[in-house]
Design goal:
- The complex is a heterodimer.
- Chain A is α/β, with parallel strands linked by helices.
- Chain A has 2 domains: 82 residues, TusA-like domain (Translation Initiation Factor IF3, 2-Layer Sandwich), CATH 3.30.110.40; 108 residues, DsrEFH-like (Hypothetical Protein Ychn, Chain: A).
- Chain A has 7 helices and 9 strands.
- Chain A has a 5-stranded parallel β-sheet with strand order 8-7-6-5-9.
- In chain A, helix 4 packs parallel to helix 5.
- Chain A is elongated, with a radius of gyration of 21 Å.
- The relative contact order of chain A is 0.11.
- Chain B is of the alpha+beta class.
- Chain B folds into 2 domains: 152 residues, 60s Ribosomal Protein L30, Chain: A (2-Layer Sandwich); 176 residues, PurM-like C-terminal domain (Phosphoribosyl-aminoimidazole Synthetase, Chain A, domain 2, Alpha-Beta Complex).
- In chain B, the strands form 2 sheets. Chain B has a 7-stranded mixed β-sheet, with helices on both faces. In chain B, strands 1-2-3-6-4-5 form a 6-stranded mixed β-sheet, with helices on one face.
- In chain B, helix 4 crosses helix 5.
- The radius of gyration of chain B is 19 Å and the shape is globular.
- Chain B starts with 21 loop residues before the first helix and ends with a strand.
- The chains are: A alpha/beta, B alpha+beta.
């Protein structure tokens, strides 16, 4: 299987990539194109069908995955377990939960200082958490006045998804002060907590 | 002007043009009551290029408007292209240009020197057309857009519509096609300068001279090739005239570099939309290759005139166009209405 990711690529680059992949692939090779623009999905699918190619389309997360080959036969789809990468995170992936705004018990001052150090260590050792979840007083880390906004932004840019408990923001009346991450709900947080084999509770 | 700006940077990176699809537009307009008036000679019923309103027995107004976001890098070129494109609808109806109004949307944080260049381009083209700009309207918007509302005139007995093509006519196209592909390629840096500049010149060129020449003949129908592509506009002509049209794709003139770009995959979204709109009324020959099919569906900016002329006059018209330095490709013929409206070979 040859996989080509053209997410966020402007039209007509997804079509150009599709044509290139077809040209360079072996006759029975399966090709997977990942696209997140609906217009491009439509155009690429249309192109393939016009040229007698059978396309399997699946929606995975916020993207479309088109699988096809140039032998004119039905595309071979990988088994579901391997296929659904969005809900079956890589074994190495992990989530971090901040249930409060400091690390460990004991001195509050020390605990707060350690948050920055720990996040920086995650970043510098390239252990990028796939999800970072903020609950209860943990939300103080993502709102105005937090001294770890920079490092959280860096982690976010490097692939971490920051989920902030919406109920907690409301409880502390801080909903308008969120500076980084996405407001989330219990469903999404539970989904994240249960889908990782490793969850680090701070 | 010292400032160097690439207007294409303002447009969504890529070639999926913002025009509403013809099929969606048709559905929407179908729900609105039609406006009727005894002086209204041509309205949107036949999807023509402009509306025509009779003032008296010798005089009718031809009115049209068109505006769009940048299709090229240089502001002065953009002004010229947008104006040529808007003026073209008057020429396609056999009319002469009288007046124009500027329609401008412009970002509030952008240098007004750029706006001035766009307007200068528009002014030069209106002047070349023999018309005059009366004024206009400017509002702020994130993406610059420019065009004209144009008023022309035509003798009520000499209106050329897209609904008059007759069996036995020959179709002549006065400009090469492929500007949609080139613009899309330019946005992604996939086209060389020579081919890009040739496309810009093609878009800047007025249809004035070609229209004057066609009016020397007893032509039956004409339209200009713009957003719906050669295929879409040919279909509109066939539908309006209740005839069938045979298009010979091999004879369709194409800008340099376009076929290679299509083969690479540079097919803007508008081309797919045009194909979707037209295909159920069209028959495509088995020998027609995919790239040629998408080429004739490519959306054009400021394209040429498609003229339906009786076969007996075709040769003279072609030689007069040729002498004047205009395009003159014979791209098809009109036959009795049969199963489909357009046959592409």
């Amino acid at each position: 299987m040859k996989t080509i990711d053209v997410k966020n690529k402007p039209c007509p680059l997804p079509l150009i990539a599709t044509k290139k992949a077809l040209k360079e692939s072996d006759i029975d090779e399966q090709i997977k194109i990942i696209i997140n623009s609906e217009t491009s999905v439509k155009n690429v699918t249309r192109y393939l069908k016009d040229n007698g190619i059978i396309v399997n389309e699946q929606i995975v997360g916020d993207s479309y995955e088109l699988v096809f080959n140039k032998n004119g036969k039905e595309p071979i789809i990988e088994e579901a377990e391997k296929y659904c990468t969005a809900t079956q995170p890589d074994e190495k992936g992990f989530a971090v939960v901040f249930g409060k705004d400091r690390v460990g018990e004991g001195s509050e001052e020390l605990g707060k200082m350690m948050v920055g150090g720990m996040l920086t260590a995650f970043f510098e050792t390239e252990r990028i958490p796939e999800k970072i979840i903020f609950m209860n007083s943990g939300i103080n880390l993502v709102i105005e006045g937090s001294n770890v906004l920079d490092i959280l932004t860096k982690l976010e840019k490097n692939g971490s998804k920051l989920l902030v408990c919406g109920t907690c923001l409301e409880y502390y009346n801080k909903i308008n002060y969120i500076k980084v991450g996405n407001i989330s709900n219990m469903d999404e947080i539970l989904e994240a907590l249960t889908s990782y084999s490793k969850v680090v509770n701070i | 002007m010292e400032e160097k700006i690439n207007l294409l940077n303002f447009v969504e990176q890529g070639g999926c043009s913002a025009k509403l699809s013809a099929s969606e537009l048709k559905k929407t307009l179908a729900g609105l009551p039609k406006m009727k008036h005894k002086n209204l000679l041509v309205d949107i019923d036949t999807h023509d290029d402009a509306g025509v309103y009779k003032i008296n027995d010798d005089y009718a107004l031809v009115q049209t408007t068109d505006f769009f976001p940048p299709v090229c890098s240089d502001p002065y070129d953009f002004g010229q292209i947008a104006a040529s494109n808007a003026l073209s609808d008057v020429y396609a109806m056999g009319g002469n240009v009288l007046t124009a109004l500027n329609i401008v949307l412009f970002p509030s944080n952008l240098s007004l020197a750029i706006l001035k260049e766009i307007l200068r381009g528009g002014q030069d083209k209106v002047k070349e057309a023999g018309g005059v700009i009366l004024g206009g309207h400017t509002i702020t918007d994130d993406i610059p857009k420019y065009g004209l509302a144009v008023t022309g005139w035509v003798h009520p007995n000499k209106i050329i519509t897209n609904a008059g093509a007759k069996t036995g006519d020959v179709l002549i196209l006065t400009k090469p096609i492929g500007t949609g592909v080139i613009i899309s390629a330019k946005k992604n840096n996939l086209v060389n300068d020579n081919n890009y500049l040739a496309a810009v010149d093609n878009m800047k060129k007025l249809n004035k001279r070609a229209a004057e020449i066609m009016m020397n003949y007893s032509i039956n129908s004409a339209t200009d090739i713009t957003g719906f592509g050669l295929l879409g506009h040919t279909l509109k002509m066939a539908l309006g005239s209740n005839v069938s049209i045979v298009l010979d794709s091999d004879k369709v003139p194409v800008l340099d570099g376009v076929m290679e770009l299509i083969d690479l995959g540079v097919i803007p979204g508008a081309g797919f939309r045009n194909m979707e709109y037209a295909e159920s009324d069209c028959y495509f020959s088995d020998t027609l290759d995919y790239n040629s099919k998408m080429m004739i569906a490519d959306a054009q900016t400021s394209g040429g005139l498609l003229i339906s002329v009786p076969a007996s006059e075709a040769n003279s018209l072609i030689s007069e166009l040729k002498e004047a330095g205009e395009g003159y490709s014979e791209v098809g013929k009109v036959i009795n209405k049969t199963d489909k409206f357009v046959y592409v070979e």
